[in-house]
């Protein structure tokens, strides 16, 4: 009886695996067919599968870009954003900041916060378009209004620097705080710095240590250095901007 029992289990498992393979094979055929027929969701999904790769769809950035563009041309904002990102990074397509800017703009105007944030970065740095701090500020505001943590931190940078408008440490502090509570290590570091220097809030070294510690746990090297300095009783006077905010890397995509 035991032998028969184990044989039953073996065949049950094998049958399930074969059934699953038949199901996925059929699903993949339908996905490909639907994509070629012009169905937007299928085109986007196919692009995503090639972007991340799987046993059924080996990673292929060129094919990912091809299908994202098919969906993007039909107005899919996620595909437009992904295609913009691929042009920005040169993944599967020749690197082209102007095309990246164009696709980000299309997705941003449809309200996609991550596209709004990246579009603002393009304006800030003059990637694919002219440098325009006022437009960067506008788009960072739009992205931050949805609670997108990187955009909140980026908008705080703008207020800290006074780019596109005026310096406002109170607004910068508030935005860093919102972003930091979402776990953003860049904002956690900056919030620690605001507490350390008393910018937009009262100077509080214990709070500074707390936020530096949060960022340190995520391997932020400057936070680790700051935390060590404060723990050793050092509070150096230095320039206002602790990071080189003007550099593109200070703004998070």
Automatic annotation (TrEMBL):
Pfam family, one: Sel1
Keyword terms, alphabetized: Signal
InterPro entries: Sel1-like, Sel1_AlgK, TPR-like_helical_dom_sf
UniProt keyword Transmembrane present: no
Keyword DNA-binding recorded: no
Signal peptide: 1-19
Coiled-coil parts of chain: none
Protein name: Sel1 repeat family protein
């Amino acid at each position: 009886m035991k032998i028969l029992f184990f044989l039953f289990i073996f065949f049950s498992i094998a049958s399930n695996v074969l059934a699953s393979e038949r199901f996925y094979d059929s699903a993949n055929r339908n996905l490909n067919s639907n994509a070629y027929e012009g169905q937007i969701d299928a085109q986007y999904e196919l692009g995503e599968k090639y972007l991340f790769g799987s046993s059924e769809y080996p990673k292929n950035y060129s094919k990912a870009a091809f299908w994202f563009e098919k969906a993007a041309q039909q107005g899919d904002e996620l595909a437009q954003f992904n295609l913009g990102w691929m042009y920005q990074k040169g993944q599967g397509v020749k690197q082209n900041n102007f095309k990246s800017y164009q696709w980000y703009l299309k997705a941003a105007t449809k309200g996609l916060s991550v596209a709004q944030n990246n579009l603002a970065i393009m304006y800030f740095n003059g990637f694919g378009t002219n440098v325009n701090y006022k437009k960067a500020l506008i788009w960072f505001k739009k992205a931050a209004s949805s609670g997108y943590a990187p955009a909140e931190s980026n908008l705080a940078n703008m207020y800290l620097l006074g780019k596109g408008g005026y310096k406002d440490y109170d607004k910068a502090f508030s935005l860093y705080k919102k972003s930091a509570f979402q776990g953003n290590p860049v904002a956690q570091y900056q919030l620690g710095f605001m507490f350390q220097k008393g910018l937009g809030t009262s100077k509080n070294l214990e709070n500074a240590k707390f936020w530096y510690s949060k960022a340190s746990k995520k391997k932020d090297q400057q936070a680790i250095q700051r935390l060590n300095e404060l723990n050793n009783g050092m509070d150096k006077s230095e320039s206002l901007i602790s990071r080189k905010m003007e550099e593109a890397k200070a703004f998070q995509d």
